[in-house]
């Protein structure tokens, strides 16, 4: 009995620091932000000392009824729709390359992981320099390959901006899909593949009816994770197209939901509305991610 | 791709295709990094040459690094400080915050992870559930109240404040990781130590952690990398050279009207050094932890 008591005391002591931090810096502010989303808190209106009023779900109603919100959801969905297929295709191709035995495999694996290790903010910066309309490397490369005759401003149009944001995001994230799919590829028992080969199946057939079905769970995981990650994209846009540093106006054409959230809270100081928006984004990203997984699993089963 | 077998035309085509794909993968992954590195060691004249670019600098120079870290009067951002001051404080802040946050997380995650993995106590599964609930929770759903809380505590624009935030928001993931690693260590040596009269904490330190060391190293490195790369939290909770890390300093430069790309590239390369070292030398530890923590 004494032994158990002391074990319990030890356990509480061991989790106490983490517990305190989570209670003070995560749970308390998360709940209190949610509650603020039910008020009209805005220091610009009420002053710093003024008090906000409880207005129920009106902030959610206002957000869901605003064209600005749906425009930013649409932009985000466009980015997601470009990123997910590209990223998973490149990730799968890279995983299949690295699943072969060849000289330089470890080196290639290391090289391919680098983009994922770098700060996404720096990746956005890197791509903005590559895409630079006056001196950029992409222009130089295409010119020297005689594919263009004049330098081109790649980020000139709104749709081009979304496209290049997606490319930079794919570059940043594809190694994640690659790592997940490579692990799954390596766990496929070789004798199954060998048996199919002995039976005379062609490589494409083996991939379609043996390899891919066994990859499906890993594929689903990568898809769901990357949906959530891409839906909440912020850093890459910030350094590639947002242009909002030092108090300048944020470029509206790539205002994804997280950028909109930043603007509502830290530029407009609309704290109540911003809190509601934060929880809307949470529900949208997690909810859709969850539905994704369910759908794919049910189809796979 | 063993080459011992006989070379039929079909196999030759297949091998050629494979190597082309492998080279394409290497180029796609490396080219942007290569261009930033080349830009950072090019002279301004070569870098801005059009329409032909210098893919290999003819006169490589470290002058850009010297410039951004010494004179740097060309651009001023984030108030009226020269870039050199901002970069120095950025390097210092990034290093201090990332190292200390990673160290705190390793310590706290070991303690709590051990409790969840090995000890019996009332409320264990409830507390574990309440913690796991937070693993996928993004920081911005608590950002607004958090900002007010940090203001009241006087922790805005301090390194201590950043460390507290990174530790708090990283803790659920790393505690969970540590408890899986500790669960995988054999119980019997630990029990032998306990019978010999060692306390639980002593057993954790002298017997359990040495066995779970790869896991601990992984937690430390992934935490360091995550904090080093972070942008949103420091963007919101810092506003001067007292605490701004490198990522925020870089974002201040980007916002300027005219960017001196050769100098900017040098600053970017400095920011890339720790992540690239991780990819080169600690890939094994980092990839697993990052893959598991991907949802965050």
From TrEMBL, chain A:
InterPro entries hit by this protein: MetI-like, MetI-like_sf
Entry membrane topology: Multi-pass membrane protein
Signal peptide (from-to): none
Subcellular location, principal: membrane
GO cellular component, one term: plasma membrane
Superkingdom of the organism of origin: Bacteria
Pfam families associated with the record: BPD_transp_1
Record's keyword terms, sorted: Cell membrane, Membrane, Transmembrane, Transmembrane helix, Transport
Location in the cell: Cell membrane
UniProt record, GO biological process: transmembrane transport
Coiled coil: none
Residue intervals of the ABC transmembrane type-1 domain: 73-292
Transmembrane segments: 12-30, 73-98, 110-130, 162-185, 206-234, 276-297
PANTHER family: BLR7065 PROTEIN (PTHR43005), SPERMIDINE_PUTRESCINE TRANSPORT SYSTEM PERMEASE PROTEIN (PTHR43005:SF1)
Record family assignment: Belongs to the binding-protein-dependent transport system permease family.
Name used for this protein in its record: Sugar ABC transporter permease
Origin organism lineage: Bacteria, Bacillati, Candidatus Sysuimicrobiota, Candidatus Sysuimicrobiia, Candidatus Sysuimicrobiales
UniProtKB/TrEMBL annotation, chain B:
Phylogenetic classification of the source organism: Bacteria, Bacillati, Candidatus Sysuimicrobiota, Candidatus Sysuimicrobiia, Candidatus Sysuimicrobiales
Lipid bilayer topology: Multi-pass membrane protein
CDD domains per UniProt: TM_PBP2
Keywords associated with the record: Cell membrane, Membrane, Sugar transport, Transmembrane, Transmembrane helix, Transport
Record Pfam families: BPD_transp_1
Listed name of the protein: Carbohydrate ABC transporter permease
Keyword Transmembrane helix belongs to the record: yes
Residue ranges annotated for the ABC transmembrane type-1 domain, each copy included: 91-282
Transmembrane segments: 16-37, 95-117, 126-147, 159-177, 207-231, 259-282
Family annotation (InterPro entries): BP-dep_ABC_trans_perm, MetI-like, MetI-like_sf
GO BP, sorted A to Z: transmembrane transport
GO cellular component, one term: plasma membrane
Family to which the UniProt record says this protein belongs: Belongs to the binding-protein-dependent transport system permease family. MalFG subfamily.
Subcellular compartments: Cell membrane
Major localization listed first in the record, in broad terms: membrane
